[in-house]
Amino acid sequence: MTEAKIDPRIVRTRKLIMDAFMLVSTRKEFKDITIKDITTEATVNRATFYYHFTDKYDLLEKVLTEDLMTNVIREISKHDQLNEATVINIFLSLTKFQKSLQSQCRRSFEAFTTTIEAIIKKELENLFYKILLQHHAKESDESLRITAVILSWGIYGASIDWQNNSQVSAEEYIKLAIPYMIHGMEATLSHMI
């Protein structure tokens, strides 16, 4: 079965609208951005906007997942083993993305955080689940899913803590936690027995 080709004009127009949205979001807060602001910046009409996106919230989600998150997703999907290097690389990719987004969309960053959080957690959960499934296929599917959720929420939460509360680099931050993540439970449990 052959894949249907997408008209390059459609791709260009969609990218033009997404870029216009990013540009407008540097000047206005998300709540104040209108479809007219975006279409004027992109030099397209409203019908063209609505052909590609249902509203500005849909546009925001697509910009985050298709444009800004692509580098993070590409970076984290390179990993096929759950180990120290994977956790460090995922954390560093995530913090780099968050810093980049915050600097690009300073005025609207706060409005984006809920959407960003949901997307990142879901992408990380999918990645961790895929890795766990490859190496533990005989385990309970629900156990693997729960583990993937815990890992994704934990890494995302740590990236937010680093962003808001840490004075050290992202690499130093995650490396401080790695020994306890990898060996902490084993050491703690052995002292309890």
State the main characteristics:
193 residues, mainly alpha, Arc Repressor Mutant, subunit A, Tetracycline Repressor, domain 2, Homeodomain-like_sf, DNA-binding, TetR family transcriptional regulator, HTH-type_Tx_Regulator
Structure explained in plain terms:
Pfam families: TetR_N (PF00440). It is a single chain. With 193 residues, the chain is mainly α. It folds into 2 domains: 8-55, Homeodomain-like (Arc Repressor Mutant, subunit A, Orthogonal Bundle), CATH 1.10.10.60; 69-192, Tetracycline Repressor, domain 2, CATH 1.10.357. 78% of the residues lie in helices and 0% in strands. It has 9 helices and no strands. Helix 1 packs across helix 2, helix 1 (8-27) crosses helix 4 (56-68) and helix 6 (84-104) packs across helix 8. The chain is globular, with a radius of gyration of 20 Å.
Q: CATH topology of the largest domain, which one?
A: Tetracycline Repressor, domain 2
Summarize the amount of helix as a percent range. over 70%
Number of domains: 2
What is the CA-CA span between the terminal residues? 59 Å
Q: Outline, from the CA principal axes?
A: globular
Summarize the structure.
25% of the residues are buried. The chain is built from nine helices and no strands.
SSE topology sketch:
Blueprint: H1 8-27, H2 35-42, H3 46-52, H4 56-68, H5 70-76, H6 84-104, H7 109-135, H8 141-165, H9 170-192
Helix pairs in contact: 1-2, 1-4, 4-7, 5-6, 6-8, 6-9, 7-8
Protein name: TetR family transcriptional regulator
Domain HTH tetR-type: 11-71
InterPro entries: Homeodomain-like_sf, HTH-type_Tx_Regulator, HTH_TetR
